Amino acid sequence: MQSEQTDILIIGSGISGLVCALSLADTSTVTILTKKSIHDSTTIMAQGGVAGVVTETGDTFLSHIDDTIRAGEKHNTNATVREVIRSAPAIIKQLNIWGVTFDPDLTLEGGHSHRRVHHSKDTTGETIQNALIKAIKSHKNIRIITTAHAIDLITKQKKCLGAYYLKDKTIHAIRSTVTVLATGGIGQLYRHTTNPSISTGDGIAMAHRAGAMTKDMEFIQFHPTALLDRHNPHFLLSESLRGEGAILLNSKGKKFMQDYDARGDLAPRDKVSQAIFLEQKNGPVFLDITDQKASWLKKRFPRIYQTVFTRTKKSLSKDIIPITPAAHYLCGGIVTDRTGKTNVKGLYAIGETAWTGLHGANRLASNSLLEGAVFARKAADAIQRQISKPTTRQTQTFTTTSPFSIPSQPYRLKKIRAKIQDLMWTHAGIQRSESGLKKAMFELKRLKNILPPEHCINAEIIETKNILEVAILIVQAAQQRKKSLGCHWMV
Ligand code: SIN
To answer: Which residue range(s) make up the domain with 127?
Structure first.
């Protein structure tokens, strides 16, 4: 089997992968491997925005740092928090240079004590993704391989040498000097999620198999307000709705957040999701922004206004909207240092797939696009220092033997996947118990035994194996943390 060659292999095409590619492409050849199209990512679905202090408004870095650490229940790495938050103005400026335009006003989200979220109406992620893709497409040193499922990292003596991937029913190998995992989140491990179908924890599973360390995997953030309808992934009702005055109502039509947290409807996400979880025991919970005029809502939240109407025939300006918490973000991930480096030589991880210490036990809203972009730049700087002599793109090939084969018969994995999602939702979801986690672990290990053999791969097998592997990592981490902290809620 022939393998291709690139200086930098980036797996994933969200904000962190794209920023990293753009930051390296002037001096190196970069290949982006993406599971669907270059437009498919969690970034593109982001509504809220990028948190960043604008001192002219009276805000301070100290306040953003305090809010991040308070939301994260002091489980954060303080040096990382300080560094990322102080880097926000520069990264926002850089995004502007790449063509990203934010609205002139700043918005508010839960846990923030100041308006500091830079947004583009309610489609901030799409604005960012589209601008970055435009910049990427005009760069001759960046090659994009779409519909390519990364199978595993190629490693030798604890060093990462590239990756195997599946495209058009053929197994390929690509060799790289440096490999960057920017594979996003894990929402698809759960029955209810806001994450797209691609969020199957592939990077974490591959890194784990290659010997990389993971940390804080138990801290799964559940977004409090996903639209409750039959769609999955659930459509997000941005926290900025509450920032602009929306309130939560219980089944009796009563406001309830103040009974759980003095910060009320704008408490950090873990507190709000946990309160909703309890209120849901007595009936449905709703989001109410009927105080705002239709004309204003249509202008400020056009996507949300339209999608809610299309899906439910309800109008944000007239009706209260049924909501549910849904798996939204992994606060932990592959352990990285302050430059995105993992403990496997030649392997970096950035964005949601990485643990940097920023989020602690619960991420502050709109800190994740910020983290993705900041660490992509830091990783690019470190990689640039590491690569002394750039090789020429795709001119060198290696011969390698693939350890994988594509099965001739189809495997039926839909049921296994649904079973994992149910187990995780029920036992490793918003509320957890020792006995529930034990049951989940027992069942997950049983499922592992009935999966196809190691070498056997196709797109569905790759994802299902990864989902299962990451589910086990989450339950293991949750079992080790006996007491509640942030989004890990034990009873
Ligand atoms: C939201 O708009 O509520 C999501 C923002 C985020 O996840 O940070």
So the answer is: 2-219+331-387
Position 475 in a domain: yes
Counting from 1 in the atom list of ligand 1, the atom nearest the Cα of 221 is 7
**Is 0.85 surpassed by the pTM of this model?**
yes
Strand order in 50-51's β-sheet?
50-51, 117-118, 106-107
Domain count for the chain:
3
| Residues 68, 201 contacting (CB under 8 angstroms) | no
pLDDT in tens, 377-420: 999 999 999 986 555 444 456 667 889 999 988 888 999 999 99
Determine if ligand 1 sits within 6 Å of the CB of residue 362. Answer: no
Going by DSSP bridges, is the β-strand pair 347-349/170-181 parallel, antiparallel, or unpaired? parallel
For residue 292, being part of any structural domain is answered with: yes
Q: And the tokens for 287?
A: 């989001």
Q: Does 432 reside within a domain?
A: yes
Query: Considering only CA atoms, which residue is closest to atom 4 of ligand 1?
Result: 48
Q: Is the CB of 124 under 6 A from ligand 1?
A: no
- Which tokens in the block code for residue 151? 């199978």
Q: Of 194, 278, 213, 224, nearest to 476 (Cα)?
A: 213
CATH number of the domain residue 22 falls in:
3.50.50.60
pLDDT tens digits along 62-115: 999 999 999 999 999 999 999 999 999 999 999 999 999 999 999 999 999 999
- What span, in angstroms and rounded, lies between the C-alpha atoms of 460 and 153? 18
C-beta separation of 148 from 167 below 8 A: yes
